[in-house]
Write a structure and sequence with these properties.
By secondary structure, the protein is mainly alpha-helical. It contains four helices and no strands. The radius of gyration is 25 Å and the shape is rod-shaped.
Length: 137
Amino acid sequence: MQLDPVISLLVGALGASLIGLFGAWVQSRREHARWLREKRYEGHLAFLRLTDRHTTNAQLGRGPKTKDDVKEAIEEINEVVSAISLIGPETLLAEARRLRAAAADFIATGKEPEMYPEIRAAYVVVSRNAIGVSSRG
């Protein structure tokens, strides 16, 4: 009969340990999700700022003047798309590639492609979903 208190103590300690481990695991997952959202936000914002800067400059006649300058501007955008490819998700990467292609055309010609506003808007919607921000006010 002396084993009963010892067994109760061991079972209680084991239960508390398991609950503690589970709590630590849940917290770790939350922190990782928060970190991923922050990285996605930073990457998406950098991409939008860069494409907006280059396309606005092109539209205002301040865009690249030579083929090398065009190539350099597009390569700068490609670097950000590469970062987006690492932080995902795949649906966002597909939209980023669409926007990159439209922006590259915009930068190279100085003229806004017909579907550019819709392509940019689609990227923003998918980006908001990826970081958990509602598209509604």
